[in-house]
C-alpha cells in the first residue's frame, strides 16, 4: 500500500516511559515516574468512588452532549454551556481544530518551539506548512511570532505555561497577537497547566479572551485533576467555534466514566488545593537542590521543571532509568543539554535528587 510522503515524515509521539515497561525491561521493582506531568497524588477518593459506581452503566452509550459536565463547568467558569467543547483529552480538540479550520492548501501553522509536540505531529498529519520559531530565554518570542503572521496563517498555538519550559506568555502579549492576526486566523491558547499558573501572583486570568470570535482556550482534566488516564480536555470559545467543532467531533468522544469522573473532580476542591500545595512545596525543594548542585533550571509556572545537566543529558536520562527514575528526555525537542522533571510528592522528589546525585557522581 502506498503511504503519502507527508505521513512517512511523521515521527510518532513518544510519551514518558510507562512504569511497567521499565520494570519489565530492567527487572526493577521500585520505579518512580516524573516524566508526564501527572498528578503525583493520584485521583481523589471521591473520583474513584464515582468511577466504580459508573462502571455499572457502561452498557450504555455516554451522553454525547455532556449535559451535566457542561453545566457544572460552565457554572464554575461563569460562561455559557454553548461556549464549551469537550475532547478525548485536549489532544483531540487540537485535532478537531485542524480538521475544522485548517482546510486550505496554503494554510500555515505558527508557534514557538520547543513547545507541546502534538501541534507539530497533528499538523504534519494534516499536511500543513508548519512554522516553528525559536523560544527566546525559554519563552515565546512574541515580536518574532507577530512578524511571521500573514494571510495564510490559519492557526497560532500559544502554550502558556509552555511545556517543556514552564514559562508564561502575558495577557498583553496575547492581545498583541490577537490584534495582529486577521479574523481568519484561529488563536489557540493552550492552558493545560492553568490551575498551577493561577496560584502565582504573576498570572493574569486569560479567560475573557474567549470572547474574541477567533480564540479558543484549551484546558484539561489530565494534569491537576489527575485524570490523564481517562482522557478529558475542553475548549472555551465563541459559540461559532464550538458549533463548528461539533460538526467534526465524533459523537461519543468522551466516555461515560470520564464524564462522571470529571464532574466529581470539579467538586473535590480539597484535592485540588492539596495538589497545588504539594506542587509548590516540591518546587521549592527542587529549586534548593538544583541550586546546591549548581544546576541551571528555568523557573516554572507549572508542575515540571526544565533543568540542564553538565554532561550529555541523554546519558543522564538513561542512567536515571537504570536507577528506577523516569524523567523526560529533551532530545526529541533538540534540547540536548536538558531534562524535564515533573514535580512529584516529597518522597519522589527526594528519591529523584538522590539518584540524580548518584548518576552525576556528586
Ligand atoms: C498534557 C498537555 C496537553 C494535553 O493533554 P490531554 O491529556 O490530551 O488533555 C495539552 N497541552 C499541553 C501543553 C500539555 O502539556
UniProtKB/TrEMBL annotation:
<dbReference type="InterPro" id="IPR050106">
    <property type="entry name" value="HistidinolP_aminotransfase"/>
</dbReference>
<comment type="similarity">
    <text>Belongs to the class-II pyridoxal-phosphate-dependent aminotransferase family. Histidinol-phosphate aminotransferase subfamily.</text>
</comment>
<keyword id="KW-0663">Pyridoxal phosphate</keyword>
<comment type="pathway">
    <text>Amino-acid biosynthesis; L-histidine biosynthesis; L-histidine from 5-phospho-alpha-D-ribose 1-diphosphate: step 7/9.</text>
</comment>
<dbReference type="GO" id="GO:0030170">
    <property type="term" value="F:pyridoxal phosphate binding"/>
</dbReference>
<dbReference type="Pfam" id="PF00155">
    <property type="entry name" value="Aminotran_1_2"/>
</dbReference>
<dbReference type="GO" id="GO:0000105">
    <property type="term" value="P:L-histidine biosynthetic process"/>
</dbReference>
<keyword id="KW-0808">Transferase</keyword>
<keyword id="KW-0032">Aminotransferase</keyword>
<dbReference type="InterPro" id="IPR015421">
    <property type="entry name" value="PyrdxlP-dep_Trfase_major"/>
</dbReference>
<feature type="domain" description="Aminotransferase class I/classII large">
    <location>
        <begin position="29"/>
        <end position="356"/>
    </location>
</feature>
<dbReference type="InterPro" id="IPR005861">
    <property type="entry name" value="HisP_aminotrans"/>
</dbReference>
<feature type="modified residue" description="N6-(pyridoxal phosphate)lysine">
    <location>
        <position position="223"/>
    </location>
</feature>
<protein>
    <recommendedName>
        <fullName>Histidinol-phosphate aminotransferase</fullName>
        <ecNumber>2.6.1.9</ecNumber>
    </recommendedName>
</protein>
<keyword id="KW-0028">Amino-acid biosynthesis</keyword>
<dbReference type="InterPro" id="IPR004839">
    <property type="entry name" value="Aminotransferase_I/II_large"/>
</dbReference>
<comment type="subunit">
    <text>Homodimer.</text>
</comment>
<dbReference type="GO" id="GO:0004400">
    <property type="term" value="F:histidinol-phosphate transaminase activity"/>
</dbReference>
<dbReference type="InterPro" id="IPR015424">
    <property type="entry name" value="PyrdxlP-dep_Trfase"/>
</dbReference>
<dbReference type="InterPro" id="IPR015422">
    <property type="entry name" value="PyrdxlP-dep_Trfase_small"/>
</dbReference>
<keyword id="KW-0368">Histidine biosynthesis</keyword>
Amino acid at each position: 500500500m502506498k503511504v503519502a510522503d507527508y505521513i512517512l515524515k511523521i515521527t510518532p509521539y513518544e510519551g514518558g516511559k510507562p512504569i511497567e515497561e521499565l520494570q519489565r525491561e530492567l527487572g526493577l521493582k521500585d520505579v518512580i515516574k516524573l516524566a508526564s506531568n501527572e498528578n503525583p497524588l493520584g485521583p481523589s477518593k471521591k473520583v474513584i468512588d464515582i468511577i466504580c459506581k459508573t462502571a455499572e452503566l457502561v452498557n450504555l452509550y455516554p451522553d454525547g452532549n455532556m449535559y451535566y459536565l457542561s453545566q457544572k463547568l460552565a457554572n464554575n467558569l461563569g460562561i455559557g454551556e454553548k461556549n464549551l467543547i469537550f475532547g478525548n483529552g485536549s489532544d483531540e480538540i487540537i485535532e478537531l481544530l485542524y480538521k475544522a479550520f485548517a482546510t486550505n492548501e496554503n494554510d500555515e501553522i505558527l508557534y514557538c518551539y520547543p513547545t507541546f509536540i502534538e501541534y507539530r505531529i497533528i499538523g504534519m498529519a494534516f499536511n500543513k506548512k508548519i512554522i516553528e520559531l525559536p523560544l527566546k530565554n525559554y519563552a515565546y518570542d512574541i515580536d518574532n511570532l507577530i512578524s511571521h503572521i500573514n494571510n495564510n496563517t490559519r492557526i497560532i498555538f500559544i502554550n502558556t505555561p509552555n511545556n517543556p519550559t514552564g514559562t508564561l506568555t502575558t495577557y498583553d502579549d496575547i492581545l498583541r497577537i490577537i490584534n495582529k492576526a486577521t479574523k481568519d486566523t484561529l488563536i489557540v491558547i493552550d492552558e493545560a497547566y492553568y490551575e498551577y499558573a493561577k496560584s502565582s501572583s504573576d498570572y493574569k486570568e486569560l479567560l475573557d479572551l474567549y470572547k474574541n470570535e477567533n480564540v479558543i482556550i484549551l484546558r484539561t482534566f489530565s494534569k491537576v485533576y489527575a485524570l490523564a488516564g481517562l482522557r478529558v480536555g475542553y475548549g472555551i470559545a465563541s459559540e461559532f467555534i464550538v458549533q463548528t467543532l461539533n460538526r467534526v467531533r465524533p459523537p461519543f468522544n468522551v466516555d461515560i466514566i470520564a464524564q462522571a469522573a470529571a464532574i466529581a473532580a470539579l467538586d473535590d476542591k480539597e484535592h485540588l488545593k492539596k495538589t497545588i500545595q504539594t506542587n509548590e512545596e516540591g518546587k521549592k525543594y527542587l529549586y534548593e537542590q538544583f541550586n546546591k548542585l549548581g544546576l541551571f533550571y528555568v523557573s516554572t509556572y507549572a508542575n515540571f521543571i526544565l533543568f540542564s545537566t553538565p554532561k550529555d543529558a541523554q546519558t543522564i536520562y538513561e542512567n536515571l532509568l537504570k536507577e528506577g527514575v523516569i524523567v523526560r528526555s529533551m532530545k526529541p525537542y533538540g534540547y540536548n543539554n536538558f531534562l524535564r522533571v515533573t514535580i512529584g510528592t516529597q518522597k519522589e522528589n527526594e528519591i529523584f535528587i538522590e539518584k540524580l546525585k548518584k548518576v552525576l557522581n556528586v
